Amino acid sequence: MSATTDTPKNIHQGRNIKRFREMLGLKQEALAYALGEEWSQKRVSLLESKETLEPELLTQVARVLKVPEEAIKNFDEQAAVTYFNSFYDSSGAGAFFSSTNLHCTFNPIDKWLEVIEENKKLYERLLASEREKVEILQQIAPHKKHD
Questions:
Q1: Does the structure show a pLDDT above 80 at 96?
Q2: Class of residue 31 by CB neighbours under 10 A (exposed 0-12, middle 13-18, buried 19+)
């Protein structure tokens, strides 16, 4: 079988190589270097524009990228997007949120006001403590001048 007949329709193997290369954080020059002396950045660019690859070349690139050949042959971006979007469609999200009870049993504004009141009380206690310190220091200060 040829590479063309093995490849499902709309799968662009060159584009898939580019995706895997980018996911690995490799530049075209780095991939060219890893593929060997006869490779250049321009040749990698041409490789990534090919819809289908020869089996030997596919094997070599897959080995360098350390991904299975099948991943390059079969990765379909549209199928992946559809798969992940299925988690966020209205029926899925609605089912999740209705099955988990996410209704507040308190008024958030009331809780916020409680926190503000608590902060006021803490501030008043801090002020009282500081006033006591000032009084103590004022009582000690006249005695220090005479010593």
A1: no
A2: buried
